[in-house]
């Protein structure tokens, strides 16, 4: 059984190769899976995809025709995979249902602190030996309110850090997390959370029900000096609406590790090209906005867990087992 892994980062490659060594041959590619690259998987029974791969109906049909039997996604999110088509084609699909929540939660707070204390601007100034403090004033977090939208494992980790800062805690989710309640979190309606919070961080999956959960009305309801953080999925925020509000001079800071049109941009070097995405081009010009390239999960701890889980998914597939990672099980043998 041969494995091909798409969208493999340079730091990730040795971890994948070491994990599969002595088990099955693995071919690592830095290119992302899409309709143009899918034919490269021909003859490989297992395809490992990254979060920015495109696994729509056309790609899945190409993979199935080439002999692929298992899609092993190296992420928790799977909104990039057409599961219904995969099921119809008899493809097994697995993901990584868990990895270090601290990697994302800590990075979310890194973004929040960076925009609050104007770290990027300060760093750029000192490189030019400009040591003025003008325009660098931030705010204490202690005593202010953190609003956490989505209080699962990552949201809980974010909440624990907020608790350590001495912040008031508001939460919104379909179900309360007892651990967050124990920390003093008060669960409220989303509208109330948006109005009252000084720092708002998003930790929900991208589903039809959460697409643009932060739209025009939600953005308008936030405090003018609020800090908005998204380290989950870009589609949670209506980016055009966000740009409109930023042009009105609103928000103390916005930290985005994800972008709703990031496919084909993030994880790639576009520095010598003309980026045609006008919305992103406008977004990065605002002095109170910090955009990073979907790196919140990117620690040796989290990536190591992702790779180990991917190996386990392949083992389970070969043994005919299901697990909590299985999204589409193997078709029953006749």
TrEMBL record:
Gene3D superfamilies: NAD(P)-binding Rossmann-like Domain (3.40.50.720). GO terms for molecular function: D-lactate dehydrogenase (NAD+) activity; NAD binding. It holds the Pfam family 2-Hacid_dh_C. Keywords: NAD, Oxidoreductase. Residues 9-326 form the D-isomer specific 2-hydroxyacid dehydrogenase catalytic domain. Coiled coil: none annotated. Residues 110-296 form the D-isomer specific 2-hydroxyacid dehydrogenase NAD-binding domain. InterPro entries: D-isomer_2_OHA_DH_cat_dom, D-isomer_DH_CS, D-isomer_DH_CS1, D-isomer_DH_NAD-bd, D-LDH-like, NAD(P)-bd_dom_sf. The keyword Oxidoreductase applies. Belongs to the D-isomer specific 2-hydroxyacid dehydrogenase family. This is 2-hydroxyacid dehydrogenase. It comes from Streptomyces beijiangensis.
